[in-house]
Amino acid sequence: MIDKVFFEGLAAGLLGLGAISLGEAAELRGIHLSTSADSAQVMLDMTEGATHKLFTLEHPDRVVVDLPQTRLASEVRVPAAAGVVTDVRVGSQPDGTLRVVVQLKSALAAHSVWVAGEQGGQLVLSLGEPAAEPAPAAPKTVRAAHAPGEGDRDVIIAVDAGHGGVDPGAIGHGGTREKDVTLAIARALAERINAEPGMHAVLTRDRDEFLELRDRIRRAHLAHADMFISVHADSMADRSITGASVYVLSVHGASSEAARWLAERENTADLVGGVRADDQGALEPVLIEEAQNQIIGVSASAAERVVSALEGVGEIRKAQVQRAGFVVLKSRAIPSMLIETAYISNPAEERRLRSAREQARLADAIAGGVRSYFTLNPPDGTRFKQERRSTLTSAADAAAATP
């Protein structure tokens, strides 16, 4: 039974983006899910604004959004169940309407808002917020303790080039060293981030030097970073393996045997530089606590955006965010991810990794994914927060003015 229709035509009707004319179909290009214990956000990447209908169903509890004259892009991956969401599915109706169904553990209020972007925008569904509001409250974020509460500061991204100095990292068949590739990509990524209004990059190393794993984290903390990104280019015995992967910290075991093996190898990097195993305080198990779990959740949400962006520039080995006990990601205060940009052991990927053009493409994708995350999840006191508040206020004003 349909309980209530909350909004119809918000994207086009309220924000003046123009309804889609007959015969012209919009395209759903991505679905992203962010959850907590009692709420969730579903972000639908659209090519353009479209009318839509949002309603709920019972037995089981579901939130449904109908998108008239909309098709599903072939590369879209439906997110897995998480938090209050037990299932997400998409299907086409006979009349050309695309239906997105979010199944829930229990009934939640739902409402939506359109967030315009440079190429189309996002239809954001907020589940679990008060239904009386005409637009959702700002998404929940984890704010680092050092971050100010108000202002228009830049979001700070610590970009960490893996390996360095006496630690060359993986070495390709053609002699390409991981430490050189990661530094080149990190520099390109920092340049790309600095070109984005409201974002600023800090490199943990900007030259060929050895850094202990815990020193990389320390430098990110000293820079008051809002996010930590460690760049790598791994190798495998099987030279046919290709594609990028994105990892976040796991305190409950790795998501796969390959992820566990990779983390164990990366965690021995300090030993190459002469650091004794009993000196590696960062290698001690992370205490499982609420703050740590929150940080990991935020890290995973941001990593999902980066995975989606990387899919647009090349092959992805793992379409889902991977988890493992990487020491360099063990920060209780900064959301962190480790990106394996490609496999340097694969001859074709080794050649691409040496290319400045390929390095720039990877940097563009990573920066785009990070910006996409902060646009929807802005830390307090940042320019992103001001812009998000302005967008939601405009949507609320438009809704209030509509008869």
Task: Explain what you see.
There is one protein chain. This protein has 403 residues and is of the alpha/beta class. The chain has two domains: 156 residues, Immunoglobulin-like, CATH 2.60.40.3500; 222 residues, Aminopeptidase, CATH 3.40.630.40. Helices cover 29% and strands 24% of the residues. The strands form three sheets. A six-stranded mixed β-sheet has the order 12-11-13-16-14-15, with helices on both faces. A five-stranded antiparallel β-sheet has the order 1-4-5-8-7, with no helix packed on it. β4 and β5 form a beta hairpin. The chain is globular and about 65 Å long. The two termini are 27 Å apart.
The fourth-level CATH homologous superfamily of the largest domain is Zn-dependent exopeptidases
Helix/strand structural class: alpha/beta
- What fold name stands as the CATH topology of the largest domain? Aminopeptidase
Q: How far apart are the termini?
A: 27 Å
Estimated radius of gyration: 22 Å
Largest sheet: 6 strands, mixed
Query: Strand fraction band?
Result: 15-25%
Architecture blueprint of SSEs:
Blueprint: E1 2-8, H1 10-14, E2 26-35, E3 40-46, E4 53-57, E5 62-67, E6 70-72, E7 85-92, E8 98-104, E9 110-116, E10 121-127, E11 155-161, H2 178-194, E12 199-203, H3 213-222, E13 227-232, E14 245-249, H4 257-266, H5 269-272, H6 290-311, E15 322-324, E16 336-340, H7 347-354, H8 356-376, H9 383-401
Parallel strand pairs: 2-6, 11-12, 11-13, 13-16, 14-15
Antiparallel strand pairs: 1-4, 2-3, 3-10, 4-5, 5-8, 7-8, 9-10, 14-16
Helix pairs in contact: 2-8, 6-8
